Amino acid sequence: MADESSTTGTGTGPTPASPARAVRVARTPPHRALAGVATLAGLTLGVSLAAVAVLRRGKPLHPRGVVVPARLTVRAGPVWLGTLGRRGTHEVLARFSRAVGLPAGWPDIQGLALRWPGRSGPNDLLLASTGTGPWSRYLLTVRRRPLGGALGSLMPFATVAGPVLLSAQPTGEPRHLDLRWATPRGRWHTFGDLVWQEVGTSDAPVRFDPVRHCPDGLATYPWADRARRYAYRWARAAGPL
């Protein structure tokens, strides 16, 4: 899908037909075939993660991490991004982690989870190391360093303007990430940044849920919910996630 906006950071883009709604799962009927595939994928992933949780007696993914306080500043987001489209500053909890849990310095899928207070509960945004190209933004990549490249949402969020992906891009400055949005295959546009002062050495027993705690004003597509619901539910039943 071509992006309608051509200037990074202007906040321009698709024109919504109505104000963004603070929903968690988009109320659009999924295509039957897509729903079936997503359910099958979710069941397979759920069984796999539950088995790993039993073997590890703990988190099946991102078992260890570093938690630091950070500041998320929105500067020029489109209004249909909800909370992330309104100028302002949010104090967030940021957790950097490695998906498989391999030792530092080994190639692994890097992860970044953010949490800040929302209207009716926490807002969670989960990002993982991906590419940024039209197709590579949907592929997980392995890196040696947490800030060795872009961290993307992988799955799109539903908005009144259509599907949107989010990412965090290193700027070259220490402890500083640019926050960006893009349509499924469109250009990336900066809408804010994330900064933190502490390097961090300690973890915290916090559970992130990108579906139940979807950021205010955004929603999860039904097929994405089906693909992840069993993974979170069964992994938590088998061990803490």
How would you describe what is shown here?
With 241 residues, this protein is α+β, with helices and mostly antiparallel strands. The chain has a single domain (32-238), classed as Catalase core domain (Catalase HpII,  Chain A, domain 1, Beta Barrel), CATH 2.40.180.10. Helix content is 17%, strand content 28%. It contains 2 helices and 10 strands; from the N terminus they run H-E-E-E-E-E-E-E-E-E-E-H. It has helices at 32-56, 222-238, and strands at residues 65-74, 88-98, 110-117, 122-129, 151-152, 157-159, 162-170, 176-182, 189-195, 219-220. It has an 8-stranded antiparallel beta barrel. A hairpin with a 2-residue loop joins strand 6 (157-159) and strand 7. Helix 1 (32-56) packs parallel to helix 2 (222-238). The longest helix is centred in the N-terminal third of the chain and has 25 residues, at 32-56. It is globular. It starts with 31 loop residues before the first helix and ends with a helix. The model is unreliable at 1-23 and 41-54 (pLDDT under 50). One of its GO terms (molecular function) is heme binding. This is Phosphodiesterase. It comes from Georgenia yuyongxinii. Residues 1-23 are annotated as: Disordered. Keywords: Membrane, Transmembrane, Transmembrane helix.
List the helices and strands and how they pair.
Blueprint (H helix, E strand, L loop, with lengths): L31 H25 L8 E10 L13 E11 L11 E8 L4 E8 L21 E2 L4 E3 L2 E9 L5 E7 L6 E7 L23 E2 L1 H17 L3
Antiparallel strand pairs: 1-2, 1-9, 2-3, 3-4, 4-5, 5-7, 6-7, 6-10, 7-8, 8-9
Helix pairs in contact: 1-2
GO molecular function, one term: heme binding
Organism: Georgenia yuyongxinii
Protein name: Phosphodiesterase
